Amino acid sequence: MSVNQTIEVAPAPRTLGTRLRGLAGHRAVWPLLALALILAVNGLVSPGFFSIRVVEGRFFGSTIDILYRAMPTAMVALGMAVVIGSKGIDLSVGAIIAICGATIAWRIHAGDPHVVVLLWALGAGLLCGLWNGALVALLGIQPIVATLVLMVSGRGIGLMINLIYGGTNPSFESPFLQSLSVGHVGLIPTRLLLGAASFAALWLLLRRTALGLFIEAVGGNARAADLAGIGSRLVTYSAYLISGLTAGWAGVILTADTHISDPVSQGLYIELDAILAVVIGGGSLAGGRIHLGMTVIGTLIIQALATLILTSGVPPEYNLVVKAVVVLAVLLLQSDDARAALTRRNRARGSLGGGSPGGGSPGGGSPKGGRRR
Amino acid sequence: MTSDQPPRVELVGISKAFAGVPALDRVDFTLHPGEVHALLGENGAGKSTLIKIMTGALAADAGEMRLDGRAVAVGSTAEARALGISTVYQEVNLVPTLSVARNVTLGREPRRFGLISWRAAREKARARLKRLSLEIDVERALGSFPVAVQQLVAIARALEEDSRVLVLDEPTASLDAQETRLLFRILRDLKAQGMAVVFISHFLDQVYEISDRISVLRNGRLVGSAATAALPQRELITLMLGRELERVEQRAAAAPKAAGAPVLAAEKLGRRRWIEPFDLVLRAGEAIGLAGLLGSGRTETAKLIFGAVRADSGRLTLDGAPLGHASPRRALRRGIAFCPEDRKAEGLVLDLSVRENILLALQTKRGWLRPLPRDEQRRLAEAMIEALGIATSDAEKPVGQLSGGNQQKVVLARALASKPRVLVLDEPTRGIDVGAHAEIVALVRRLCAEGLALLVASSELDEIVAVSDRVAVLRDRRIVGEIAGAEITRETIIELIAGG
Ligand SMILES: Nc1ncnc2c1ncn2[C@@H]1O[C@H](COP(=O)(O)OP(=O)(O)OP(=O)(O)O)[C@@H](O)[C@H]1O
Ligand SMILES: [Mg+2]
User: ipTM, 2 decimals?
Assistant: First the structure.
């Protein structure tokens, strides 16, 4: 290309194209687009998908159902987002749910008032977080290994609690706990209100104190954070506590729904969905950023996809593969590198001179970054 | 230099923008064989971006590159290397957890029967480092060495026999005079063999010593290119800054001030295999310089005083009261701030924004329950960006996207933002341009006049001389002498360092 050509191209930096491209760089765009797309396909596959009716004094409809089912996973995913932001990971969340379930059955059979049982369950989650945090922050064990310990042993602990205090898979009745999980306040399912409240509380904790910033600093560069006076150990510790608590909360909702403590299968593989939700929401496993809102979007994508697969008539054997393909597509859309590779291809196919000014991927490939991500 | 031979490298009309903000605007650059070509400009002018494009680390938006007269497209750093272009990037981009030997030979491991020969790799690494007079354990992890050593390792890695172009982005930023001299001797040899060298630096003395030609960038545009001999320093600075640089006043401390009360005092403070026990008193309004060669214990002293590393003997007192177990957290809360020398590994959280990075130390001081209100955060960031002249499109930009010198300013800004009474600086102006350097020296002196107690460790003697009221000289991990007032000159310091 000649120099002249470049001169012609250069002085129009704010065209619609560049603006769109700037928008494309925003992290919220791709997950939201993916969610909208999946919902739209849902709407095509099952007519009346978007309709919301009032049945038996409460809202009823597929979209409500997606929110309803996503709530426990979203709780777990929010805690996971915090841990991942601190450059860690918490594989034990499913096991924590099992322990919470067993604790609930145990304390109900022990005759505690049900509000106290709730506190016991949350306390059990917190205790699990305390344990994980101790391994990671105090003993310096790698997070994946440290939380694997509880992931493996947690369900066994649940079974032991069951055995000692109630036999195998004890069931229980608790109108109070059930009202939290499957009840409704006015037209709205209670768990959605509780979910919204928990989200707000977590948001306030992270963003209206400096805790969020500290966790992100530690996750981004623990040594630098330490030298800036942020005690990285305590901060890391707090992340696991939060994750334990949110997992415990999810355990309450799930267990109250089934009225049974089933440590073997309660919350099975939920850690994987939670990690996936964080990543789909734009979180990097390399740590350093917490996106609470986007994590919820990620959970909704997973749940909407699950609903779509169920209703679309795809043979159930294909479920997991379809899910994997869609998730992969969302992740590729989000990746700067993948998009850059695509646009580079397109540009190479078109004329070389038509190069766009001010385009390119943000943070494409510096000699250090780029590739490693 | 205009023989019938085509230039080794020719860049024509290179443009590059990041998220719509132009970093380079139709830049031409010509590099001849057997020449050392200095690429100069202020922080954020676009020097690193240009050489990243030249070496395949970044793709240009427009423009083309010719190598020995043939158009080439360098798609990656590996391709650049295959074309004979060796590079030392500004931010040492080696793998800190791998051994020095592996880092030196990474990607070009010597092989026997198709398999990597580790013994040969170690030999190769040792031989390379020997050329730079660096004799270290090549099997230790790179990250365990100080920045200067890492820098030398990066240079050693780039000195491939079959290279035709050597690109050095601020290779001497953390080197002492001695290592720099060695590097220059090697560069002269290479030049004689026809190597084409690009040399980026903010040390103008070095530029005049080694380069044949100078090109100057300003705000992403090429504003001039001339033979070094034909470009006097004053003109060069004016070209770089776009204005004249007022003469930096020589040490304002011509009139000896009465030093204030002792603030922070080290009594027999030491740590085994780290630094010999030493006494040092920091007083309000006084600046102390720490001078010494690479490995003499400058950084170690600074870290011990700040509490980044725990002492195993002696004690620290603040205002006469013992400080107890030192930790960065406690130090900051007591009004002691620190700038580490290695901005990438120890200074910045690259993914966080400029605002957040500047805020960190102050926020720690306030504690996590008392977050600085959002608009005050913004005001603080704006004030610091203004005060230190940090070139960034806005305060929300991730700090990793700033140019090297501007990142360094952010490290300084963080320490200053915490409003310290005692400031410990380790290589505070690494990679900062001449204009900003003068302003920062002035700023620091002004803070001192207002009662700050300052400790500056630096490999740059001129900086030590310009800033300090008192200088402690280190050799072999112990303080071997102290000088003050009019005694502080390059010569006396060098003499002490040499053991006179
Ligand atoms: N990955 C990136 N994303 C966004 N902006 C960038 C990126 N890399 C560089 N820039 C911007 O491009 C401009 C030029 O940066 P560059 O690193 O080339 O400066 P420099 O001349 O090397 O400065 P210094 O002397 O401080 O090293 C700066 O304004 C910088 O903020
Ligand atoms: Mg640079």
Answer: 0.90
